[in-house]
């Protein structure tokens, strides 16, 4: 019996790599200093796994930005615009592809399957010539080897890389493609043990048959956590006697302690099918999606802490299960685990009968505003009196490091006033308060809701150096008091222009948290929706006329299997509508969505029944607009982003005006809004001011042109 880890977090226990990356980008440190921080982290992770008794330790799971971008570099698949002429790809080309530079935009970024991780989308073309241009995987393997640690280099598979790239929409996604790819690799794999990992869902029977019969492949990894039917699949279809089965029984996507006895039972069932010598205990996927180590947590109380397992603890779980299968069961470890599970199940902190009853009443209902959106927009325009092509931003503004000190309220008010005055100077039409009081768009609300717990260092990589600290939803959710009314009304008192109340929607709070696994996700989402509904109605009562309820993560919760998607979209969209079903027609409800593919769920987005939706557009080559070119009618307000905020590059007025013109070709001028792609928290004021100046100038230029066309 052996043990295996698919992958590990790569920012460091206290985000050491994040800070080193940002220091390098700001030219405060050099490449050698960045590489030393990265190497120190890799070495510590390999030694940690080796010391814990893990046999199959991964390498090449570290990345300076993204593993798919690493694959693009390895293959030399650099888009021509970046001017790469050959040789080993260095940081200049690598980070230009990831972040853009002064003259070139970055490559497209989108969600990694149904996670909150983002990858850089490969740009492939028929005339692309692949060449081995980055030796990173080999170098890191040798680096571990020098420590006396044998590792398993991890690569993005050829079929996955192809299907994750831009031309994937024209590729026939058949299992013959998979078989052909590995037939081509058969000679190269000869003499090696190749492991093909699958994760995030069940495999359909035909896909399972294709995977386990691949030529040149020695082992197959299966997700037995999200793949709830996988065990039955193996039992019914069997498993080839010449391959190893890597059983992903330890959850790589969540932070709850493993039910060790249940996992051991599953492993023994598999052992009866494939044999003890052919079975390895593994994580369900890379631990990239979980926090690093509970040892670093001082904020969590001991009871909740006993219910959890971060990445470091999951390594121990994998090893304990592997040892138990060889007759070396640690009875104390298993007993402690069982006691923690029982404590969680019976804890009064978890269950609130009144909340459960209110959420249960929503099943089968259809909460929505009664007046059609076109009539509501007319009523709102009479009250707001906005110009054609109204301008706004998505919510956050750059945060300065000297906030949150002694005179907190005074400092926050001064920062809000600065943001308000700047927007007035820029002549933006609908303002935001900049969110200086908020640490994170989900954590901020979680801290004020019952049923949430919080970490100090529970950081998870979202993209590049960007990390989030997901709250932990451990119990039933309710709101004790208003959460945002004070700051929103304070900001509104500083201006005569409309000030948006800024909320995070229930689906996004759900999808960007570590969610309890002891009840269906939709039950938890309905509970959050009811809490946010109270907040929306309090904002309206306080005089806020425009309320934005962000659902940035609505699509990332979409199940990978099409057969499961309709049910998810039904309760997810319903949860959003619940939050605002009780407001007046004159109250304008906005929502925002960021980096993802939206065209295939556009009808669900329409069914959200928001008055205005702002949505990422610029970094995805304006693919969003194609859905409207294909005839989809959208009667509500819509603001496809006019520039990419994840790049330091400042767009010109002409460039933004060109984007707006493309939008006007498929959207009516009376529904179109002008806004950036996303919030501005990660940018500097030196970038934000000129970019917004150009955005407003472009909107005014187009207004003049439209007026002259009459």
UniProtKB/TrEMBL annotation:
UniProt domain Cobalamin-independent methionine synthase MetE N-terminal: residue ranges: 3-171, 173-272
Function: Catalyzes the transfer of a methyl group from 5-methyltetrahydrofolate to homocysteine resulting in methionine formation.
The protein's required cofactors: Zn(2+)
Listed EC numbers: 2.1.1.14
Reactions performed catalytically: 5-methyltetrahydropteroyltri-L-glutamate + L-homocysteine = tetrahydropteroyltri-L-glutamate + L-methionine
Domain of life from the UniProt record: Eukaryota
Protein's UniProt name: 5-methyltetrahydropteroyltriglutamate--homocysteine S-methyltransferase
Gene Ontology biological process terms in this record: methionine biosynthetic process; methylation
Keywords in alphabetical order: Amino-acid biosynthesis, Metal-binding, Methionine biosynthesis, Methyltransferase, Transferase, Zinc
Organism of derivation: Coptis chinensis
């Amino acid at each position: 019996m052996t043990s295996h880890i698919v992958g590990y977090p790569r920012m460091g226990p206290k985000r050491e790599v994040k800070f080193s990356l940002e220091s390098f980008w700001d030219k405060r440190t050099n490449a050698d200093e960045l590489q030393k921080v990265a190497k120190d982290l890799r070495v510590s992770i390999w030694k940690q796994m080796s010391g814990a008794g893990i046999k199959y330790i991964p390498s090449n799971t570290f990345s300076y930005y993204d593993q798919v971008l690493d694959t693009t570099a390895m293959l030399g698949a650099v888009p021509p615009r970046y001017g790469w002429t050959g040789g080993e790809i260095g940081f200049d080309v690598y980070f230009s592809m990831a972040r853009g530079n002064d003259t070139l935009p970055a490559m497209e970024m989108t969600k990694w399957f149904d996670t909150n991780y983002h990858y850089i989308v490969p740009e492939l073309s028929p005339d692309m010539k692949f060449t081995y241009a980055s030796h990173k995987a080999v170098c890191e393997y040798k680096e571990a080897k020098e420590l006396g640690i044998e590792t398993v280099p991890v690569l993005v598979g050829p079929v996955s890389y192809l299907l994750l790239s831009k031309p994937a929409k024209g590729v026939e996604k058949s299992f013959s493609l998979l078989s052909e790819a590995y037939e081509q690799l058969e000679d190269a794999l000869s003499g090696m043990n190749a492991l093909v990992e699958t994760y995030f869902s069940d495999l359909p029977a035909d896909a399972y048959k294709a995977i386990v019969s691949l030529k040149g492949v020695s082992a197959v990894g299966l997700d037995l956590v999200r793949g709830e039917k996988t065990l039955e699949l193996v039992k019914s279809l069997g498993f080839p006697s010449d391959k190893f089965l890597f059983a992903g029984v330890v959850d790589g996507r969540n932070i709850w302690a493993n039910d060790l006895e249940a996992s051991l039972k599953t492993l023994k069932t598999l052992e009866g099918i494939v044999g003890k010598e052919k079975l390895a205990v593994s994580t369900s996927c890379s631990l990239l999606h979980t926090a690093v180590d509970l040892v670093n947590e001082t904020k969590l109380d001991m009871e909740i802490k006993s219910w959890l397992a971060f990445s470091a603890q999951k390594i121990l779980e994998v090893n304990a299960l592997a040892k138990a299968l060889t007759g070396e069961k640690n009875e104390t470890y298993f007993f402690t685990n069982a006691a923690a599970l029982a404590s969680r199940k019976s804890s009064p902190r978890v269950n609130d009968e009144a909340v459960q009853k209110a959420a249960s009443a929503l099943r089968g209902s259809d909460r929505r505003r009664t007046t059609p959106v076109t009539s509501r927009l007319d009523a709102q325009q009479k009250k707001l009196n906005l110009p054609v092509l109204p301008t706004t931003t998505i919510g956050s503004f750059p945060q300065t490091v000297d906030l949150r000190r002694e005179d907190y309220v005074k400092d926050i008010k001064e920062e809000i006033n600065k943001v308000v005055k700047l927007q007035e100077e820029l002549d933006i039409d609908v303002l935001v308060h900049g969110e200086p009081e908020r640490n994170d768009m989900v954590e901020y609300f979680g801290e004020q809701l019952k049923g949430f717990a919080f970490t100090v260092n529970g950081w998870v990589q979202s993209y590049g150096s960007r990390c989030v600290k997901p709250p932990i939803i451990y119990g039933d959710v309710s709101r004790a008091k208003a959460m945002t009314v004070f700051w929103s009304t304070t900001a509104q008192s500083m201006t005569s222009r409309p000030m948006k109340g800024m909320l995070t929607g229930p689906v996004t709070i759900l999808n960007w948290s570590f969610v309890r696994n002891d009840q269906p996700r939709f039950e938890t989402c309905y509970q959050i929706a009811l809490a946010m509904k109270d907040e929306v109605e309090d904002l309206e009562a306080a005089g806020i006329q425009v309320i934005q309820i962000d659902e940035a993560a609505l699509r990332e919760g979409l199940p990978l299997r099409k057969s499961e998607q309709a049910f998810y979209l039904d309760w997810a969209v319903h949860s959003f509508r619940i939050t605002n079903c009780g407001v007046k027609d004159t109250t304008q409800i906005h929502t925002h969505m960021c980096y993802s593919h939206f065209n295939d769920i556009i009808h669900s987005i329409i069914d959200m029944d928001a008055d205005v939706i702002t949505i990422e557009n610029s970094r995805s080559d304006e693919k969003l607009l194609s859905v409207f070119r294909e005839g989809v009618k959208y009667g509500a307000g819509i603001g496809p982003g006019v520039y990419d905020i994840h790049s330091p590059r400042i767009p010109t007025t002409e460039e933004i005006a060109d984007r707006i013109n493309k939008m006007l070709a498929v959207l009516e001028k009376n529904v179109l809004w002008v806004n950036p792609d996303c919030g501005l928290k990660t940018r500097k004021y030196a970038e934000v001011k000129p970019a917004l100046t150009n955005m407003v100038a472009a909107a005014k230029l187009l207004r003049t042109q439209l007026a002259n066309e009459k």
